[in-house]
Each structure stands twice: as C-alpha cells, then as structure tokens.
C-alpha cells in the first residue's frame, strides 16, 4: 500500500488535478486501523510495514500543506 500511496501522491504533484485517488488510499489506511483497533498496521507494536508507511504519510502531510494542494484533516484519528 505504501508504494501505491507514494505513486499516487507523486503523480498528483506532477500532474495536479483530482486528489480523490490519494484520499481513497488514506481512507483505506484509516479504515484498516479503525477496524483493527490497533495503533499500527499489524498490531500494537511497530513493524517494518509501519516504518515504510509512516514517513510517506508525513511527507504527504508536509508537502501537501506547503503546496496547498491537500491537507490531511483532523478527523483522520489514526493517521494523525
């Protein structure tokens, strides 16, 4: 999921336009965390998957805010 997430964001920054694909991926991540009831992707302890995903989410948060193209909202409890 992390690779797809990064690809969608890179494409969005290069081409611009619709952010819906990126938002859908963020919603899937949020939904997975909400359903599992855990803090991280594979449980309550940090795993390699989280180590790949978390920096990507942070990059999107910072770059999206700086470029004023997408802002991850506060209602994303688990992705915050």
Give a written overview of the molecule.
By secondary structure, this protein is mostly helical. It has one domain: Glutathione S-transferase Yfyf (Class Pi), Chain A, domain 2 (Up-down Bundle), CATH 1.20.1050.10. It is 62% helix and 0% strand. The protein contains three helices and no strands. Helix 1 runs antiparallel to helix 2. The longest helix has 19 residues. The chain is elongated. The two termini are 17 Å apart.
Task: Write a brief structural summary.
The chain is mainly α and 80 residues long.
- Biggest sheet overview: none
From the N-terminal CA to the C-terminal CA, the straight-line distance is 17 Å
* SS field, number of helical segments: 3
Integer tally of domains: 1
Helices and strands, with pairings:
Elements: H1 2-15, H2 20-36, H3 48-66
Helix pairs in contact: 1-2, 1-3
């Amino acid at each position: 999921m992390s690779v797809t997430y990064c690809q969608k964001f890179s494409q969005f920054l290069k081409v611009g336009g619709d952010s819906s694909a990126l938002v859908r991926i963020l919603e899937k991540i949020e939904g997975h965390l909400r359903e599992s009831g855990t803090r991280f992707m594979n449980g309550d302890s940090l795993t390699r998957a989280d180590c790949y995903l978390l920096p990507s989410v942070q990059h999107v948060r910072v770059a999206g805010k700086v470029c004023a193209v997408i802002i991850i909202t506060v209602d994303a409890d688990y992705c915050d």
